[in-house]
């Protein structure tokens, strides 16, 4: 499955970025490019509307975290909206992880996140 990304300015300083499909190692650059364009506007709020996102890997999470770091540099904020249950599970897992190294490499992390999302989607 491919990834498509749309973005729009909701109001002054507020942008909504909507990824749709599968956000993984093969597609994260599509989201990253769109986010970079939006960040050049220096919004105070960046909303990721995840309503039609089916899957996210560690590279997708990394892209969102990168946007959050950029926004934080000028006191902006990132909001995640409409997370599907399997996407919510990934973010719950990440928040629950201790600060120490848990996975030996990216592939191991992606395999784990994949298994967790499959459990939620059945």
From TrEMBL:
Listed InterPro entries: Anti-sigma_ant, STAS_dom, STAS_dom_sf
All copies of domain STAS, residue ranges: 4-113
CDD domains: STAS_anti-anti-sigma_factors
Signal peptide segment: none
TM ranges: none
Top-level taxon of origin: Bacteria
Gene Ontology molecular functions: anti-sigma factor antagonist activity
Similarity annotation: Belongs to the anti-sigma-factor antagonist family.
PANTHER family from the UniProt entry: ANTI-SIGMA FACTOR ANTAGONIST TM_1081-RELATED, ANTI-SIGMA FACTOR ANTAGONIST TM_1081-RELATED-RELATED
The protein's name: Anti-sigma factor antagonist
Species annotation: Desulfosarcina widdelii
Highest classification ranks of the organism: Bacteria, Pseudomonadati, Thermodesulfobacteriota, Desulfobacteria, Desulfobacterales
């Amino acid at each position: 499955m491919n990834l498509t990304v749309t973005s729009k300015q909701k109001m002054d300083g507020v942008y909504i970025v909507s990824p749709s499909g599968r956000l993984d190692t093969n597609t994260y650059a599509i989201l990253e490019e769109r986010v970079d364009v939006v960040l050049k506007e220096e919004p105070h709020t960046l909303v990721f509307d995840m309503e039609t996102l089916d899957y996210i890997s560690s590279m997708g999470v990394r892209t969102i975290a990168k946007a959050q770091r950029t926004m934080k540099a000028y006191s902006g904020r990132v909001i995640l909206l409409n997370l599907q249950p399997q996407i919510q599970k990934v973010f719950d897992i990440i928040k629950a992880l201790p600060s120490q190294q848990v996975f030996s490499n990216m592939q191991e992390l992606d395999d784990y996140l994949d298994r967790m999302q499959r459990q939620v989607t059945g």
